[in-house]
Write a structure and sequence with these properties.
The chain has 7 helices and 10 strands. It is an alpha/beta fold and 260 residues long. The chain folds into 2 domains: 114 residues, Cobalt-precorrin-4 Transmethylase, domain 1 (3-Layer(aba) Sandwich); 121 residues, Methyltransferase, Cobalt-precorrin-4 Transmethylase, Domain 2 (2-Layer Sandwich), CATH 3.30.950.10. Strands 3-2-4-1-5 form a 5-stranded parallel sheet, sandwiched between helices. Strands 6-7-10-8-9 form a 5-stranded mixed sheet, with helices on both faces. The chain is elongated, with a radius of gyration of 20 Å. The protein binds S-adenosyl-L-homocysteine. The site of S-adenosyl-L-homocysteine has 24 residues, from helix 4, strand 8 and strand 10.
Length: 260
């Protein structure tokens, strides 16, 4: 007699890009169309769900800092439960799943559980959002590289603590800060204390690539005040470095540009 193990499903970790649904990859579109169930982060634009099957179950699992949230452990349990039921699961995340997206943790959980997992890379906000202003994060005349860093340190005591801002101040790369808005003033202060010139060009871009995008352009010293005056909030990308000199803000009704 032959016994068959029950078929387990597969999980796609899908990067939905920074917002503009046209920045979705073809691979993401195909993966979205294959899934029985989609677990969707709130940074992923609703428009990407147009590519879901009409009978797909859509589960919103947003957990933005400070908002009502679905705990990570619960999301992972859901993912495992659906996959073990033999379903094809799509975990849809803003930007790229492996850039500050906890995609790495989810992949490890799936691997441990012996569930097949495929990563569908997405365009990360740290590259695509500055590009909307014409900011090339690694223009070779102005930067020898780019550093992606989080302004929101882990609060659970695990590795991944506060970045070493004074080392970053001296590293000579463009700094692209994710989740940096709440602590912007102290980050700017720490970078300046570490030796980064107060007049280093800096910008912040909220809701990048969406119709609601707003941006301010300033300097390291003035950016926190300019951001506060403009009432800019999350989600936003902060870029610090000479490349910001190339920033141009298009004339659009909601766009806001300030050069301080
Ligand atoms: N995985 C995502 C990042 C998730 S962390 C990626 O690769 O882009 C969440 C942070 O990403 C936000 O706090 C913000 O700093 C940034 N972010 C994501 N989408 C954004 C957008 N459309 N505009 C500006 N910042 C964005």
């Amino acid at each position: 007699m032959t016994t068959y193990a029950p078929r387990t499903g597969k999980v796609y970790l899908i990067g939905a890009g920074p917002g503009d649904p046209e920045l979705l990859t073809l691979k993401a579109v195909r993966a979205l169309g294959r899934c029985d169930v989609l677990l969707v982060d709130d940074l992923a634009d609703t428009a990407v769900l147009e590519h879901a099957r009409s009978d797909a179950r859509i589960v919103r699992v947003g957990k933005r800092g400070g908002c009502r949230s679905t705990p990570q452990a619960f999301i992972e349990r859901l993912m495992l439960r659906y996959a073990r039921a033999g379903l094809t699961v799509g975990r849809v995340k803003g930007g790229d799943p492996f850039v500050f997206g906890r995609g790495g943790e989810e992949m490890q959980t799936l691997r441990r559980a012996g569930i097949e997992c495929e990563v569908v890379s997405g365009l990360s906000a740290g590259i695509a959002v500055p590009a909307t202003l014409g900011v090339p994060v690694t223009h070779r005349d102005m930067a020898c590289g780019v550093t992606f860093v989080t302004g929101h340190a882990r609060e659970d005591g695990q590795p991944g603590r506060e970045p070493d801002w004074s080392a970053l101040a001296r590293c000579g790369t463009t700094l692209v800060i994710y989740m940096g808005m709440r602590k912007l003033a102290s980050i700017a202060e720490a970078l300046h204390a570490g030796g980064l010139a107060a007049d280093t060009p800096a910008c912040a871009i909220q809701n990048g690539t969406r119709d609601s995008q707003r941006a301010v352009i300033s300097t390291l010293r003035d950016l926190p005040q300019v951001v506060a005056d403009a009432k800019l909030g999350s989600p936003a990308i902060v870029v610090i470095g000479e490349v910001v000199n190339l920033a141009e803000v298009a004339e659009q009704a909601e766009a806001l540009s300030m050069r301080a």
